[in-house]
Batch of 2 targets.
Target 1
Amino acid sequence: MSRTGPRRSESIRVAVLNAADDLLVEQGFAATTIEGIATRAGVAKQTIYRWWKSKVEILLDALEDDALEGLAWAEPAGTPVEDLVTHLHRVADFFQEPAGQVLQALLGNAQLDQDAAVALREGFLRGQRERDLVGLGAIVERHTGKAPDREHLGRLADLLLGPIYYRVLVFGAPADKELGEAAAHLVLRSTD
Amino acid sequence: MSRTGPRRSESIRVAVLNAADDLLVEQGFAATTIEGIATRAGVAKQTIYRWWKSKVEILLDALEDDALEGLAWAEPAGTPVEDLVTHLHRVADFFQEPAGQVLQALLGNAQLDQDAAVALREGFLRGQRERDLVGLGAIVERHTGKAPDREHLGRLADLLLGPIYYRVLVFGAPADKELGEAAAHLVLRSTD
Amino acid sequence: MSRTGPRRSESIRVAVLNAADDLLVEQGFAATTIEGIATRAGVAKQTIYRWWKSKVEILLDALEDDALEGLAWAEPAGTPVEDLVTHLHRVADFFQEPAGQVLQALLGNAQLDQDAAVALREGFLRGQRERDLVGLGAIVERHTGKAPDREHLGRLADLLLGPIYYRVLVFGAPADKELGEAAAHLVLRSTD
Amino acid sequence: MSRTGPRRSESIRVAVLNAADDLLVEQGFAATTIEGIATRAGVAKQTIYRWWKSKVEILLDALEDDALEGLAWAEPAGTPVEDLVTHLHRVADFFQEPAGQVLQALLGNAQLDQDAAVALREGFLRGQRERDLVGLGAIVERHTGKAPDREHLGRLADLLLGPIYYRVLVFGAPADKELGEAAAHLVLRSTD
DNA sequence: CACTAAACGAGACGGTACGTCTCGTCTTGTG
DNA sequence: CACAAGACGAGACGTACCGTCTCGTTTAGTG
């Protein structure tokens, strides 16, 4: 016997996520207020608070819909080095897209708010880290013939992705192609 | 003939910077309000607005007083690789200190606010980048016997520092010792 | 079909008017700040600004609730002269009451602020003038047997009320009984 | 042996009084701030505070220079009734002049501030009341042949001047000629 | 096909901080 | 030592959002 009455409106959910996304890209994170999202989505504030705890949760929700593919590791399509370079370029490009800006904003906010940091890590980063280790592990295994242990793999991931995030988060500029290539070659050579 | 009247009070400047620093470490960036800083420093709000445009400027001012030495490159004390590893460890440790937390917060805020991003880059990051290139250039030169060109040097800096910042900013955890060592060896080996 | 959502809280309205009244009597007009009223009424500042434009409007609102009866003309109870004297005494006494102090303060403020002057006249004085002319007209008619024209009536009102207001506003002292009596006799005799 | 060093500058005193006067007429009492007066007079704020306790004192100072003659009782020039009417017209006109506006503002402010009220009464009104009683006393004596006692005289003054002040302070409009004439005739007739 | 009961819009409300304004005091160097 | 210049502590201003709350109204189901 299920309960009576209306169910959560999917159209509202979508309208809110889109409004949040749009506001973030157009006005920035600080100007993306719950009130603004509500107005833009044509929705009452209370309706938002009923389903999300904070704007961070909204943006996380929006991120999940978009970021998974933007940061996904592709199927092998060339040599391991080529595939790795391709992936790093893809990551660098991702931050130019709306979803990448959302992630960038959430990462920024995570530096300022412990709760938001936890939510981001639990809600996105941990899963992404897992996917990165799997994707990178496959490439390394194709390159060297055996899978490195998890700790080693994590370090490799840091060495590869760190410089790209560094350029974006610290200098606000996308990583250039050469940086990805240099990182890929250095790191794969180190596994020989 | 200089102008008459009272001059800017240095003791107020120091009190404000300390209050801001303390509040940031104790309560976090969001809870570090101008009003709170003023109360804590025993100063009128207007006095703060007279000299600083925003709390970001205050924290930048505080950073300048503290971060320069925390991220400075030391004089040669061992082999180039040893010195590089030492420096990377130092950078990793820096983010555990108050000044490092200030930098972390400002980097986070810079993702959310274009103006703050510009202020941070002009006020701190550009100078720090310069110091990093000089310091790293010296080490590379000692290692290889000749100085790499500026573009190459920049890439090396990204590859070395990126992973450390990545761990701090993305995972909120300090880089472990091995990461710095791996980065140092990889990068210096690449210059052979 | 009326609009949805919560309605204006009457209890808040009353709390604000009382707080304003109390503060004015206890601390004076200048010390009666919106902030103080809000605190005293246990209400958010924004709530006050939602419903009133300024403290003058609040006091006008408070005045409306109280001053109407304090300055009302009573039903005939004796000879016209007796009734007129009674009314003038009543007006003189009115300025000793809280509502009278509110009116006094608003009159004072009206000298200093054109907008406040207009608000006071539109919001209270015009109506009171009308009531005064009607009340006085009835007494004169009882006394002489015919109603004077409006212009004449206005002059009589000025001659009767002027001295009382003069004593209050210029000398800060209530008019004594004799002044009212003298005014009443002089003016009524002039209509013979 | 008088003390050494510069004395109070008379030119500053005049500049301040003029600036205050001008500001009051142009901008109103509220906008007439000490800071504004200082700027306009080309004088330092501290210099004003050295010699006056508040803007009320400044305006009182300014009033003394101007109001004495504006409200003075003239020498006999016609019948007592004519002279009284002339004086009442003069009082009504006075409030259209700058000095009259200063007095009006000070009267307004006196309703809002006890200290200011005391200062105004001590600094101006008491003396003016005295002059009014003397002037009116002379007229009454000319009219009836004997001087009324002080209490009676005071009541007559209230009956004569009250209506004029009432129109100005309550309705913000000058008393018309008829009002003065009516008051003069009524009051003088009452002394027969 | 009423009858529920939750979802929803609208928006009032107590708070907190914002950045601005002006006050009256205090400090510093000049004439 | 009077003065200009102006820094300073204090505190109210009016605004923006926050997150909570109370209202009708609308929208499914369930009986």
Target 2
Amino acid sequence: MRLKIFLIAVGFMKLQKDIYRLIKKIPRGKVTTYGTIARELKISARSVGQILHRNPDPAHIPCHRVVDRNGRLAENFAFGGAREQYRLLFNEGVKFKDFLHVDLEKYL
DNA sequence: AAGTTGACGACGA
DNA sequence: CTCGTCGCCAACT
């Protein structure tokens, strides 16, 4: 049982590490897009979403700073939905056009 | 082991 | 801007 958890953790480490490295350097009050991360990692944008969705380590990965290419929030945000993501970003001083759209033009 | 599922993206209409 | 399609690919049945 415990072993299983360990193995899963190790398995996640591969991509988690790469994504973590990119996401963690996002300055406060800024955001990035899935596509940007995807190109950096040489993987599909979809995979980035996939990996973040089944978020391996939400405590150490500021996934709320990741939006889609239109600056749109993820309505299916794993932790509390878009509402929660909105709140987190707002706390960092990110300006919004409306509930679901971040003010891009000044992302990472 | 094979099929389904999406925090997406690009392109056309 | 939205909507529909297709390509994408790791994770999950």
